[in-house]
Amino acid sequence: MIASVQVIGELSGVLDLVDTDDTALLRERLITVGPAADVVLTGAEVEAYRRTVTRLNAMWALGESALRLFVGGSSNGR
Predict the structure, then answer these.
(1) Is the pLDDT of residue 20 over 80?
(2) Which residues have C-beta within 8 Å of that of residue 71, sequence separation ≥ 6?
(3) DSSP H helices in the chain
(4) How far is Cα 30 from Cα 49, in angstroms, rounded to an integer?
(5) Can you tell me the distance from the alpha carbon of 29 to that of 6, in angstroms, rounded to the nearest whole number?
(6) Reported pTM
(7) CB within 8 A of 37, min separation 6: which ones?
(8) Distance CA 25, CA 45 (A)
(9) How far apart are the C-alpha atoms of 3 and 56, rounded to whole Å?
């Protein structure tokens, strides 16, 4: 039961994050590309994505996050 409450709390925290310059930059990029299009990020956008993923992973403490996998790495060195 405690684990379920923890998961709900962590998920709530991730979903309720305040917008940042990084997330605004990434959102604007996705808007300009349009739905179902491939997106190639610029260097600045890649760094914004990495900072955003790190921020989300800090809130999601249940181990390996799926978000980290999209960045091409592992949060635990595997």
Answers:
(1) yes
(2) 49, 50, 53
(3) 2-15, 21-33, 43-59, 66-70
(4) 12
(5) 33
(6) 0.62
(7) none
(8) 7
(9) 19
